[in-house]
Design a protein that fits this description.
This protein is of the alpha+beta class. It has 2 domains: 99 residues, no CATH class; 49 residues. Helix content is 26%, strand content 33%. A hairpin with a 2-residue loop joins β7 and β8.
Length: 155
């Protein structure tokens, strides 16, 4: 027996959908499959139900959280609840970055590169000293790796 390839939501639960027409109609209702959407400064964080299993059969991932137009891969989640939690954490990370002010930049809190991977956001600072100044102690979901500050959403 083959694994189902298309899914719709029954409430907040993904269920298989055999009909391409029903699946397409469901997917066209973007608002109906949006878990959360926030604008944080110049960034938009969106979490939606993908309609497909983006993971593996034994470890399904039906939801994706993305920072719009940044070109990096989205964070994936199995359940609606996990997707809501991941969305909040990514939005908080973006807000924290967005709240870096001119004084912080003048004090050296400037990053030279950043990116999103399926399991983390990362920011390469100008130096390890800058990373230490920006994140003097590790906090939940945040840590330093040399001159890189890393945010790992909860699973």
């Amino acid at each position: 027996m083959t694994e189902p390839t298309r899914f719709v939501l029954n409430g907040q639960e993904p269920v298989p959908c055999d009909s391409l027409e029903d699946w397409q109609r469901f997917m066209d209702d973007i608002a109906g499959r949006t878990v959360a959407q926030d604008v944080v400064g110049d960034f938009q964080v969106v979490t939606t139900f993908a309609g497909l299993n983006l993971g593996e059969a034994e470890s399904p991932r039906f939801f994706e959280t993305a920072v719009v137009d940044n070109g990096d891969p989205p964070f994936l989640s199995e359940t609606w609840e996990q997707a809501e939690s991941k969305h909040r954490k990514v939005a908080q990370a973006v807000e924290r970055l967005n709240n870096i002010n001119e004084e912080d930049i003048a004090n050296g809190y400037r990053f030279v590169d950043c990116g999103v991977q399926p399991d983390r956001l990362w920011f390469v600072m100008e130096s390890e000293e800058t990373a230490i100044a920006a994140l003097s102690e590790e906090t939940p979901n945040w840590h330093r790796e040399g001159r890189t500050i890393v945010f790992t959403p909860p699973t």
